[in-house]
Amino acid sequence: MEVTGRITKVLPIESGKGKEGKEWQKLSYIVETDEKYNNLYCLEVFGAEQVENFNKYNKVGNDVKVQFNVKTNEYKGKYYTSLQSWRIEKAESLDTNQHFETVGDIHEEDNSDLPF
Fold it and tell me: What ranges make up the beta strands (E) of the chain?
């Protein structure tokens, strides 16, 4: 999925340890569009490298085009949905030769078995 808008807020970095004891980081940020309805998106980047790249290239006030996946998890009978961004571009330079990628594919290890 994709959304184009302005970064209006960057939330503090969250971190912790997974079930296997591996450390993780997550950063959430808000993108607001010019649409009349459903114009607010809370997206996230997951992983230390992706968080570092996000902070390096993106600031509040930047106009961006974000590509993301919708992910839903079930925990104790409740469902939690997140918007996991995997690519962020400056909105004013959408020419494919001028864009920069700030967040790597969060499923890089899963791509090796894709049929395309």
Answer: 2-10, 14-17, 23-32, 40-46, 63-75, 78-90
